[in-house]
Amino acid sequence: MQDTTRRHLMAIAAGALLAARAGRGLAAEQALLTVANAAGAATAFDRAALEALPQATIATMTPFTEGMSDFGGPTMQAVLEAANATAGTQLRLTALNDYTVDVPMSDLAAYGPILAMRQDGKLLSVRNKGPLWLIYPLSQRPELNVPKVHDRLIWQVKTVAVT
């Protein structure tokens, strides 16, 4: 009887776990990025969804890498458009370690930063500042090569909130 009761309780627990996972949705479990618009509505992106967006390459040097690198990924503007999150004046990006940085929305039109998923053709991993790293064209725009903008080069981006 104890064995039957134990199996019954385990079945109930397993069912509850599956129901909880289904409620969160598969996309949330596999999301590389979640974007919240100014109204608070969130959109989750997996790698395939991000790769389906308009892509750009920025060849630049950064204070965090050696030499010139080609960074590739979706434009930040394209990500926000796909999430219906273009109304606002500021972006708050948060990294996997909960580090946050604020980026003026005006930077998107002025400088075209990207959410890099690749460096020199190789996918970025958590170990090398990935899977997503906000990159500006520092080498093409010398006015950006200053500490204030370096602080915006947040890596391991997990969320973007528009305010």
Structure description:
The chain has helices at 2-24, 26-30, 47-51, 76-82, 106-111, 147-150, and strands at residues 33-36, 42-45, 55-60, 69-74, 90-95, 100-104, 114-116, 118-119, 122-123, 133-135, 157-162. The longest helix is centred in the N-terminal third of the chain and has 23 residues, at 2-24. It folds into two domains: 1-28; 31-162, Alpha-Beta Complex (Sulfite Oxidase, Chain A, domain 2), CATH 3.90.420.10. The protein is globular, with a radius of gyration of 19 Å. The strands form three sheets. Strands 2-1-11-5-6 form a five-stranded mixed β-sheet. Strands 3-4-8-9 form a four-stranded antiparallel β-sheet. By secondary structure, it is of the alpha+beta class. It comes from Oleomonas cavernae. Keywords: Signal. InterPro entries: OxRdtase_Mopterin-bd_sf, TAT_signal. This is Oxidoreductase molybdopterin-binding domain-containing protein.
Q: Care to give the gist of this entry?
A:
This protein is an alpha+beta fold. The protein is 31% helix and 29% strand.
Elements, N to C (H/E): HHEEHEEHEEHEEEEHE
Indicate the structural class: alpha+beta
User: How many discrete domains?
Assistant: 2
Tally of DSSP β-strands: 11
Stretches with pLDDT under 50, minimum 5 residues: 3-27
| Terminus-to-terminus distance | 58 Å
* CATH superfamily (homologous) name of the largest domain: Oxidoreductase, molybdopterin-binding domain
**Number of discrete helical segments:** 6
The CATH topology of the largest domain, please?
A: Sulfite Oxidase, Chain A, domain 2
Major sheet: order of its strands? 2-1-11-5-6
Average pLDDT reading = 86
Query: What's the helical proportion of residues?
Result: 25-40%
Assign the CATH class of the largest domain: Alpha Beta
Organism: Oleomonas cavernae
Keywords: Signal
Protein name: Oxidoreductase molybdopterin-binding domain-containing protein
Signal peptide: 1-27
